[in-house]
TrEMBL record, chains A, B:
Gene behind this protein: comB
Record flagged with keyword Hydrolase: yes
EC number: 3.1.3.71
Record-level Gene Ontology MF annotations: 2-phosphosulfolactate phosphatase activity; magnesium ion binding; sulfopyruvate decarboxylase activity
Family, as annotated: Belongs to the ComB family.
Entries under HAMAP family matching the protein: ComB
Pfam family, one: 2-ph_phosp
Protein's name in the database: Probable 2-phosphosulfolactate phosphatase
Keyword tags: Hydrolase, Magnesium
Amino acid sequence: MNKIEVCLSPELIHLHDLHGKIVVVVDIFRATSTMVTGLANKVTSITPVAGLEACRTMKSKGYIIAGERNGQTAEGFELGNSPLSYLNNGFEGKKIAVTTTNGTLTIEKSKATADEVLIGAFLNLQATATYLAQQNKDVVIHCAGWKGMFNLEDSLYAGALVSVLDGQFEYDCDGAIAMKALFEQHKDDLKGFLSQASHAKRLQNHNIEADIDFCLTMDEFNFIGKLQGEELVKVAL
Amino acid sequence: MNKIEVCLSPELIHLHDLHGKIVVVVDIFRATSTMVTGLANKVTSITPVAGLEACRTMKSKGYIIAGERNGQTAEGFELGNSPLSYLNNGFEGKKIAVTTTNGTLTIEKSKATADEVLIGAFLNLQATATYLAQQNKDVVIHCAGWKGMFNLEDSLYAGALVSVLDGQFEYDCDGAIAMKALFEQHKDDLKGFLSQASHAKRLQNHNIEADIDFCLTMDEFNFIGKLQGEELVKVAL
C-alpha cells in the first residue's frame, strides 16, 4: 500500500523526501482555491511565480498578472488573490502568472524534487483523492501555512484528504493522524471552527467573507490542477 | 492579558520571538517527563547537554550521565531516558547530565533568548499552569517533536496546557487552537489516541510500555522544573 504524509509548513519540507512522490500543495485561503477556480473557469494556464518582480515582468509576455502580499492585491497587479475574480469564465483563454505570500513559494519548494505537483482545495477534494488513489505513488500533502507557521485551514484540508483516502493509503505520520482527527471532529462546521483562526480573522478584516465561504465549498469541481512544466493546468479525470 | 503561542517543532522556533517570554519545552516521550521525575525524586539538578560527546565528558566532573539516541540508551552512558530509573529516590543528591535525541536540543534552542525556560510534562501539568498564570509574561510552548517533525504527544501536551489556561491567556495562534481542540477531544483516552502515533509505536517496539503509561499520568507532581543557568532545578509553588 502506498503511503501518505503531511508536511505542516514549507519550513519543514526538507525533512520529507519527495523523490518519486506526488506532492499536493494546499493554500486554502486563498492561493490554491483561487487557482482551481481559475482553471475551472477556462483560463488556459496558471504559472506560479515566487517573487513579485519576476511575476510583474510576465505582463510584457502576454500574461495577466495576479499578485498578493499579506492578503491584499500587490501594487501594479491586475488581479489579487480572490477566487471570485475568475467566475463566469472572466479570463477564458488567458494565461495567468500569479505570486502570493505563501502558496507560490510552497509550489516552488515542491517542484524541485517531486515526481508530480498538484494543487489542492476543498473545491476539488474528492477529484484529487480519486486521482491519487489511481496512481501507484506515495503522497505528501504540503501545507503552505502562513509565513512558515502552521495554519489551521491548510492543515484541515490535509486532514480531509487523509480522511477521504482512509483505507487506500497507509500513514505512519503524526501530522496525518492529528489532522485527520481534527477534520473529522469539525467537518460539519469548518467555518465555525476556522472563525477562531488567525488567518480567517485577517481575511475578515479585509472584508472578504465571500471568499472564505467560497473556499470552504466542498467538491464544486471535478478535475485536478496539475503542474506541467512551469504551468498549472486542468486535467479531467 | 498575556499571550500564549505554540511552536510545533524546534525547526520552526526561529519564527517566534522569545524575548521576555517564558518557554515551556516539552518532550513527553520521554525527556521532559524523565527530567520532572528525576527532580521529584530528589536529584540535585539536571544539566541538559545537546551533544553525546559533551555529555560524556561530564562524568569526570562528578555527574551521573544519561544518554539516549533514537529511543535507546547511548553506548557508554550510565542511564538512558526512562523516568522509572529515577523512582524511589534512586539518585537522591546526585547531579545528572543528560542528552537526548530531541529534548535537549529544544532546550538549547530556547534558552538563548527566552526569559525563562521550564520543562513541561503531563506529570506536572497543573503546577506548570498555576505558575504561568502567576507570572506576567507571554508564554511559548515549544514542542520537541521527532527529529524536527511534528509529533502527536508533545502537541497534545501543548493543547492540554492551553486548555488548562483557557481564559487566563489569549491566543491568536493556529497551533494553540488546533492542539487545544485535539486535546479536549481525546483527553479521556490519550493513550488510545496516541497508540496510532509513530513515536508511541517506536517506543512499544522497545518494550517500554510502562514508560508510556507513566509519562501519560496527570498531575503526579506539584512543582515546576526550571532552568537556572545551565541546570534544571525543582521549584516549589
